[in-house]
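Retro notes, structure queue

What went well: the backlog is down to a handful. What didn't: a couple of records were mislabeled last round, so from now on we paste the full input next to the output in the thread. Example, using G-protein coupled receptors family 1 profile domain-containing protein from Monopterus albus:
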Amino acid sequence: VYTFTFLLGLPANLLVLFVYVRKACKRGTTPNVVYAFNLCLANLALVAWLPIKAVETFRGWKLPPLVCPIYSFFLFSSLYGSCLFITAVTVGRYLSIAFPIIYKRYRHARISCLISIVLWALVILHLSFALVAEQGAYFVSTSGVTSTCYGIFNESQLAVLLPLRLEMSIVLFFLPLIVTSFCTLRCVTLVWRSHLQPMGKRRVLTVALSTLAVFVVCYAPYNASHVVGFVLEQSVEWRRYAMLTSICNVFLEPVV
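Corresponding output:
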């Protein structure tokens, strides 16, 4: 899965990045371009670490322990960064449809850049707290002859990680999911009642609903594992399998 995702995600995101950069050079930078650019960067950062993830899956962790927290930081910051920027894109679409005149006044790239900085800062701040649970072990644990990065934790680490995972899932996924769902459903309602041509309606509705579907399918299982893990007071075994759907976002998001 990781190899397949790497082979699809790398060219897809590079192509989308090229298209948006070219669009910005020709027509100027818009909020949608800024958010899409950050979304591509988040996906490419994730793609860059997928070969290591693939090797770890089959052979265990072979790199120095110091690389593990760096690897985990980029991996999870990419995932949650993608969540937030999908939400930003969806909110922009909703505002442009629901309040076109008012939104046009504030539709400046500078504001979008500031929002992007705030979103990245929010992700980085949350993930930095995860290092508190490290306690000098670099998150590398050994089970038998196989070493694992960020896979097995002791009770003192779980005491910090489980509440932190729950808080991260609420702030960085469930709240954005509520916002994304609301904006998408409002877009669907407004477009359906509009006087657009049927072809135009279908196009807008397809993009809006596809974005929401990708958001839910890719990120819901992994974040649900955080909620279940907090309730059961353990790092659930199926969490690593739930990660597979989150990884798939790197080739699904460029499509929508």
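Agreed that this is the format going forward. Reviewer comment attached to the example: The longest strand covers residues 140-143.
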